[in-house]
């Protein structure tokens, strides 16, 4: 029993070491995938975390905060919100494969998109970050209610 426990602990340590190496390596090769900042989606229900990635477009988005937007359902796969002015996407990743909860910017139309279902790899879609489960629920329920993004204080 003791030997089995030590073998399991050793295997778990090796797995953690590999995962740590892979995450450090991924961020080394793809720095735009590293989280750079937490901002908040503010609703009547409270403040919900949104983890922004370390890319120039995510940074440009934070420069506009506080930012008020109204999301609308788009094809039952995503919720979109148009910005008053397009973001400059120079120097940013120009495509991504969005997962549930991803916050992205669709450069051709100039809108934010929050994915409520996974979607295919898409050109022109700039990854911005990931909504917390609470923030995602708030966006899904928002209807045409104006929501507010705020930078952390």
UniProtKB/TrEMBL annotation:
Residues 44-150 form the Cyclophilin-like domain. It holds the Pfam family Cyclophil_like2. SUPFAM superfamilies: Cyclophilin-like (SSF50891). Transmembrane segments: none annotated. This is Cyclophilin-like domain-containing protein. It comes from Sutterella megalosphaeroides. The lineage of its organism: Bacteria, Pseudomonadati, Pseudomonadota, Betaproteobacteria, Burkholderiales.
């Amino acid at each position: 029993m003791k030997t089995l426990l030590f073998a399991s602990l050793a295997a778990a340590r090796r797995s953690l070491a590999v995962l740590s190496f892979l995450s450090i390596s991924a961020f080394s090769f793809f720095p735009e995938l590293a989280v750079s900042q937490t901002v908040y989606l503010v609703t009547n229900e409270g403040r919900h975390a949104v983890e922004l990635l370390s890319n120039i477009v995510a940074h440009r988005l934070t420069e506009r905060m506080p930012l008020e937007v109204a999301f609308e359902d788009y094809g039952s796969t995503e919720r979109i919100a148009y910005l008053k002015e397009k973001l400059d996407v120079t120097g940013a990743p120009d495509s991504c494969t969005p997962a549930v909860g991803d916050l992205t910017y669709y450069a051709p139309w100039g809108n934010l998109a929050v994915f409520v279902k996974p979607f295919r790899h898409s050109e022109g879609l700039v990854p911005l970050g990931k909504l917390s489960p609470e923030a995602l629920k708030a966006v899904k329920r928002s209807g045409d209610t104006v929501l507010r993004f705020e930078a952390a204080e």
